[in-house]
What does this fold into?
Amino acid sequence: MAAAINVFNKLFASVLGLILAFTGGLNTVFNGNVAEFKDLGGVAGFETLVRSQGVTTDGESIIYSGKSALERVSADNSEVLAINTKAIPAKLEAIGIKHIGGISVYNGVIYAALEDSKVWRHPVIALYDAKTLEFTGSYYELSPELHTHGVPWVTVDGENGVVYAGDGRKSDGAFIYDLKTMEYLGEMRYSSEIAKVQGGEVYNGKLYLGTNDITRAVYSVDIATGEVQKLFDRIGFKYKYIENFGGEGEDVTVMTVEGEPMICTLQIGVTFTDATLRGYKLAEFEK
It folds into this structure.
């Protein structure tokens, strides 16, 4: 049995190596002339399923979301610390929830954007324990009249006691909710439109947004004024006639890497068989 397992592991490692080599080459072609970044590690094959939607950090570890899963890994992105492969609870599955999007963490709690994808009747923010990744039992149903195309992303602004959340078709701003009660408080309006936002994170008075637009661009929004600044593109190859041609841009977070704050972005590769985390030096864009 041990011999058979070793043979399987060797074959799996070989196949994985080929996938990485193939997707890595294609990803390099599509990257084009984009902002300089640090490769913070990635996965390929089945592991991509748990790192395909969201990313955030509690300051000590990195937390990912897949369409139905959550995973917590070490701060250097190398060791899996906890995983929940069935993160959508039965009570939410019963109303059609089948998709986890962007995530954010605050005070030991993960705030996750959930939706009944393509139906758009039950936009939900669900709460999970940030260490165990288990559902806490608490969730909030948002208004489908506001969130007409679900809730692809959510982020917590603990300093101001609010939560920001998006809508799949909304490009002119974000909805604001009270952190304690999740009562709707109004909108943050952007100074210019930001299309196809997939994830966001608040840091030092700015809302950083990752998109799945034609270049998978990343933006910052000044929370006080709504002023929008485009920071960088994640791919250089533009092709507008096939949706997600060249991979898919996902969530963003901000964390300290080797003593330096970085905008960290999650993206799916060209063949949709790998997911990578990149770090962009925050100081390069906040001059």
Observations:
- The helical segments are 2-31, 90-93.
- The chain has one domain: 2-284.
- Residues 2-31 form the longest helix (30 residues).
